[in-house]
Give the backbone structure.
Amino acid sequence: MPEESLVEKFQTTGEMKYFAELWRRYAGPAYGRLLRLLGDRAAAEDVTSDTFLRAMEGLRAGKYQRGNFAGWLFTIARRLGLNWRLSAAERYRGGGDRDRPAPPRDPEMRAQVESVLNQLADEHRIALKLLYIERLTFKEIAVHQGWTMKQVKTHVQNGRRMFLQVWTGRSSRTRGAGV
Amino acid sequence: MSPEEREFEEELGAAFRALRERRGPCPSAEALSAYQAGSLEPGEADRVRAHVAVCGLCDSLLVRLKDFDAPGPPPSPVSWPAAERRMRARVFAGANPWWRRLGGLFWRPAPAYALAGIVLLAAVAVRRIADTPPAALRQHPARSIELQVSRSGEPGAPPEDFVVLSFWIPPRPGLRYSASLDGAPPSEIARDDGGGNFHVPYPAARAGKGRHRLLVAGTDRQTGKVEQQVQFEFEGAP
């Protein structure tokens, strides 16, 4: 039966067998997406269940606009997944500021660091930001990113090396331009 | 710390700290999602861009979001069936709570009354046992556990008979939970509501007539140390 018919039957009769069929078709794809986004099986299970419960409520309340049930469902999943991730991020920051106060610094240098970071590969840039800006430990980075400890060390090490390469190149260019 | 790390920290540590101070709070899920889709107002998009440039958590989130809609590989055939069963039980138990099913008793008399009787008896028996938890676990006493029998053939029910064990334990943040029924190897369970409510399905054959023991353990996600343990004893569903 096409998905739009399943949705309509569920909305008109309230019979769970129609929603169960939607579950059968889309639980796997929703879970797979959320697992990639969250990197945590228990969290992906929680959020997948919540997604379908929200979808069920939405269908009962007539919030679904006909046309693309899967797209609508995955939008709910994306929003709930993001919320979960952002709450987890707040938990990482919940321990108060573990930093010394930043000394006054040349704002131009800050902008240059930002610019060099943005030239790095995703895994290098993210590893450095999590370590030096967020002040996460290696273990926290591993949990947050779903990386092994070895991967964290490799990304940090290579990230530092790539950063310094670009940073030094930028310095010599700046010096060259000044001459 | 290696000399290379020290040099890196000395030269750039202050700049990184300054970036951190400038970072500000993370945008909402809606704003991040809209930013990624390119549908934010220009001013708001600039604000989110400036934040993401210095926020490792949001940056990593946006990188993952890029692939969100790409069809990925199918879930692992090893872990998927159990995960699917747990999620389905929660979704469909939530959809058909006992108070909603009561309505059906009036027009589906015989099997429904029998089922309600079983659930009621089991719940009463369980409460009596659970009121006296073993001394070792009294720091987190088990309040109660309820059984809901889901027979195959009911609308929305799984294809085999299941018993859903529903219980509440004091929620503790940062813990990963597992449950072991009658000494079997523990399997991971997930909270139903982000609080302390759990609905854990087991094949009916495993929680049938007789006394059973469910041991729930909360393990710290970071250290792997068991931080919370609750034990329930209950009379199974006949």
